[in-house]
Structures are given as structure tokens and as C-alpha cells.
Protein 1
Amino acid sequence: MANNMAVQVTIYLQEDDKWQRRPLHMEILNFLREENVYAATALHCVAGFLGRQRVKTSHLVDAGGKLPVIIIFVDRDEHVNRVLPKLKEMAAHRLIVRENVVIEQGNLE
């Protein structure tokens, strides 16, 4: 893989998803940090849907834990390959997308 190439992974969750009774998005971020992944972020969405369900918004009183949370992380291919099995276990019921990306600025050092 060229120096300017990386892998970006996007994980689509709901805010009430849990891993061992704790918020899944935080557990995934903690796992990625422990595994020394280069960069990761969790985005709490104001509106969206998962699995062809109806659109939920932060303005709906009944949204109650159903708003989307998206985790995006970037690293080298070999590092992503190492952490993906555990992520697939943690978010077994959720969509995980992997794509090759070009780093336009900065590096993964």
C-alpha cells in the first residue's frame, strides 16, 4: 500500500446499543484507542435511520435511544485487519463499511 493510502471504516450504530451493559460506541472507541488505531471519532446524529426503519430525529419525543451514532476510524490496512474481527463481534448486528481512501494531507505516523 502506498504511503498516501489508508483504510477508513464506518460503523453504523444506534445510541442505545450496548456491549457488556455499557454504551457500544464508547466501548468501540475505547477498544480502538487501546489497539493504537491512528484516528477515530463517534458522531451523534440529529436525524437518520438504520435498517430501512422510519427516520428518527432529535425533535421526536419518542426517539428514545434510537438516533444513529456513526463511528469512523482510519488506519493502515494491516492494522484495520487486526481490529476488525473484534469489532464484528462487538457490533454483530450493525452495518460496518470498509473503504480504501487516499490521504490528501498529513500521514499515519
Note: The chain has a mean pLDDT of 88.
Protein 2
Amino acid sequence: MISHEPIVWNDSYLTGVERIDEQHQVLVNTLNEANERLANGVTRDLLEQITRELLSYALYHFETEEELMAENDYAARAAADNDRHRQEHRGFSQKVVAIREGLKDGRLVSREELLGFLNAWLVNHILNTDKKLAAYLLERGSGQASAPRPG
């Protein structure tokens, strides 16, 4: 069995917008937990549980980003980036829903296939798409900068 390394959170994933960064950390932790849970074998019940939890949190996160986009006229001022961002969210959701539909029909995905898709999608989305949105928000003074929490 191919082992998957967890995503190690580092400063390259920070967008500078606290709400987005906090939610990204939850998503990374969720993927890392899924990796651990699937290490002992893939079952339909486990895949259903993981994809349900992941889709639920991802939709919440996408809603947060899209609210920030709407509140800050992202569509009017960066139309192509706004459209691409929303399309990536829809594409992710459709892929996870398709995996869930397949599970109902008895088609299991492998740990490698599921985590390969999820990890690659999330890292690419954060590093490219979300960083563009964050730069826009910060430029407009709408993003609350991420800062280390007082200890």
C-alpha cells in the first residue's frame, strides 16, 4: 500500500485573511485525519463518513469565501478570477458528490485516489485561487490580517 504523507501546514499556505486561513487549517486537518482513518483499510461506511464530513465543511468554507467575494465586488472588479474561483468550488463539490454516488452503487475509491485528488485540489486551490482572492481582499482593506495568537 502506498503511504500518503500528511499535508504539513506551513506559512506558504497562509493567505493573510484570518477567517480563510483558519478554515483552511481545518480542511488540512480533516484530510490528514482521513488519511489516518483510511490507513487500516477502505470500507464503504468509512468512505461515506469521510466524504460526508468533508463535503459539509467544504461547502461551509466555500460559502464563507463566496460571501467575502460578493461583499467586496470581486465579480465586478476581477470577473475572470471570480468565475474561475466559483467554478473550482463547484467542480470540487461535483467530484465529491460523484464519489458519494458511486459508493451508493458499490464502487469504492482507493485511499490513494481519494487522498490524491483531495490533497492536490486543496493545495492548488489555496496556493493559486485563494491567494488571488486574499490579495484582492487585503488590498481593499477587507481581509483581516492573520496574526499569531497571543500565547
Note: DSSP finds five helices and no strands in the chain.
